[in-house]
Amino acid sequence: MKRSKRIEALDQRAVNKDGFIDEWPEMGFVAMSSPYDPKPSIIVENGVITELDGKKRADFDFLDQFIADYAIRIDRAEASMAIPSLEIARKIVDIQTSRKEILEIVSGITPAKMVEVINYLNVVEMMMGMQKMRARKVPGNQAHITNLKDDPVQIAADAAEGALRGFSEEETTMGVARYAPFSAMALLIGSQVGRPGVLTQCSAEEATELELGIRGLTTYAETLSVYGTEKVFIDGDDTPYSKAFLNSAYASRGLKVRFTSGAGSEVLMGSSERKSMLYLECRCLYVTKGAGSQGIQNGSVSCIGVAAGVPAGIREVMGENLVAALLGLECASSNDQSFSNSDMRRTARTMLQFMPGTDFIFSGYAAEPNYDNMFAGSNFDAEDFDDYNVMQRDMQVDGGLRPVTEEDVIRVRREAGKAVQAVFKYLGLTEVTDEQVEAVTYAHGSKDTLKRDVASDLMAADDMMKRGITGIDVVKALAESGYTKLAESILNMLKQRVIGDYMHTAAILDENFQVMSGVNTPNDYMGPGTGYRVTGKRWEEIKAIPHRIDVNEF
Amino acid sequence: MEVNEQLIKAITKAVVEQLQRGGAQPTTTSSSGPQSLAGKTRMRPKRSYEGAVRAKQGTDPKEVVIGVGAAFQTEITKTIGGIPLDEVLRNVKAGIEEEGMVSRVVKVLDTSDVGFMALQAAKLSGSGIGIGIQSKGTTVIHQKDLYPLTNLELFPQAPLMDLETYRKIGRNAAKYVKGEKVTPIECTNDPMVRAKFQVKAALMHIIETEQLDPDKGMIVWEGAK
Fold it and tell me: In this structure, is residue B17 part of a structural domain?
């Protein structure tokens, strides 16, 4: 066939490098609704749910049982289930109906009913729903802080810059898992240099992650993964009950925790039980709520390549974010994983959370160039900072970030590097040279930094764990190395777990370590003239992007 | 290690060409509308492992057990990056032998999760060190006394793998057996790997998972006959 030059040009477009697949419900490649999804139903006998979404109690799998016993308010169930799904969907969009009223109704509906409700909403209606149902009044943002070399000095510098740029939470992970103690410690130090009060976590194997948390080397946890089918849960060596137990282990030490789930994981692991991604994700979110978690990271997350491959996949992603908010959970709404070669497509996907605002629009945003992002690439990275700031300014939307000056970036990066150098020296860990700190200060990514002795680092990191080094040792090391203010900030972060207020839904801390959560600063949106508006000091901050024409110098 | 970008590009190109020839990625929707897959319940027919020999617990302290996926060299013959699995296995074994250790290959039929495959291989291994390799190429080096979801080394981005890396994996596994101070193989990262490969990865994992035969456990594996 003689080829059309137009079609040839289109074939070369970035979007055509993405992976697309037809709906295939038998294998779970279906976003919003599968012919095999159950129909909503509930029967309550003597205060016990004996039928859930068409299944008798005797036939429950462990997710059904967990959901029936812990995630649905039995006193509300019959009344809520009697309200037509279409009416609930309309209430979600209706500005006259308060968030509180909707939380009350939704607390009594089943996962299959939730799927029905969400299927009535188009993406704009979902965004309107999120604008009202988000837990915290002011939206927030989270960063990924990682690099290809697992270089702790770069982690500290990027964490400092990220905190300066406005992220309320920062998450790290490793290429080499055994670097975890160094990564967690460097992130903790760097974050507090950039802006006191930023929360930090280290995504690692669960037992390691818990130990780092208990030791005070992290200040929250996020990677408690739940799945929508029993088979995938078991493959992960887990049950809803073991996750609830792990959740309470963190709670016992006063640490903020959220769970993680998202569309496509069951498909990717080959056990979707022919159900839609939305239905399976609803099950995950009910398990999360039942386990007593205050929040969730969801929105397909690391399986976004699968969700985005099927029709209405991106609508489903926003739908599942909304389900989290409807259940009263803090929602860290993904946008954290690259899924498209097309700049246009990846931006469009993020607008669904950016415009209405979520508790954390990204979970997280790569605050390093994507080649250094060890979550295999985020949807936005450090090279998109200015685009993002301009989008906030264009639309007068608070996306959680702010413009910064080059001088401030260099200053906080250097201070973070120096502080890590001092702590490593005080604790007798591997050497951090002045040259390394200098390279990291001015670096964009790990291509600009010096090589570290990996084998020695790993031995020192093992040793650090064996010696029982904790957050308090970091405070001591900083205080005795002359970093008094920084030491105080980290001590203040450790105090949070004694106070416990930041375990409330959607909590973040301001620069004075004051909690802002869905409890003390709840979202009160009810249409125009209500809720959070970008005004005053914050609006001035957003306006001040670099590269404005200076009229006086023109 | 330097990532050999040219090789990756060449392999990617070859895979894409192959897929286009095979018609696996229709360029128009008219030829395969929605629902065209409805009713299809498998990717490949189930292979019988009747008469397969169950792999024995190892006693040789110099041994590294390589646990390969259920579809390895049978339903799937190339990694997601297009490298023949025969070559993958040959290089991992060669790496182990270069360090003076001994390799043994088993096929894991009770799980397709690479972490658990590797851990089971490690537990079977006389040295306590094992390697898990999924048919799409994802690889883990594991040690018998570690938590399942942790590892000694993990290579999560299968499309970036090359034969030299597989050889180094063999060498490093052998060095862990010898108790040497091991420098992990340098990480590679392609932030667009998910966009390009995740749907294909899901399909390959379905092919692997539907071949599981949990009652058979781990079997002696000498390649497809």
Answer: no
Region A304-323: mean pLDDT is 97
**How high is the pLDDT of residue B20?**
52
| A355 compared with B194, residue with greater pLDDT | A355
CATH code of B159's domain? 3.40.50.10150
pTM of the model as a whole: 0.92
On chain B, the residues whose CB falls within 8 A of the CB of A204 are 150
Among A277, A396, A438, A352, residue whose Cα is nearest residue B202 = A277
Has residue B21 been placed in a domain? no
Range of the domain at B171: 63-178
Among residues A434, A493, A511, the alpha carbon closest in space to that of A164 is found at A511
Which residues of A fall within a CB distance of 8 Å from B203? 21
Residue B168 lies in a domain: yes
Residue B214 lies in a domain: no
Dihedrals φ, ψ of A472, to 5°?
A: -65, -35
Query: How many other C-beta atoms lie within 10 A of the C-beta of residue A495?
Result: 11
Q: How far is CA A97 from CA A87, A93, A94, A150, B191, in A?
A: 12, 8, 6, 49, 42
CB of A376 less than 8 A from some CB of B: yes
Q: For residues A174 and B142, what is the distance between their CA atoms, to the nearest angstrom?
A: 17
pLDDT mean over A17-30? 95
The pLDDT value recorded for residue A237 is 84
ipTM value, please give it: 0.88
Per the structure, how many domains does chain B have? Answer: 1
pLDDT tens per residue, range B74-118: 999 999 999 999 999 999 999 999 999 999 999 999 999 999 999
Give residue-wise pLDDT tens across range B113-129. 999 999 999 999 999 99
How far does the CA of residue A377 sit from the closest CA of chain B (Å)? Answer: 4
DSSP string computed for A219-232:
SEEEEEE--SSHHH
- Report CA A527 to chain centroid distance, whole Å: 27
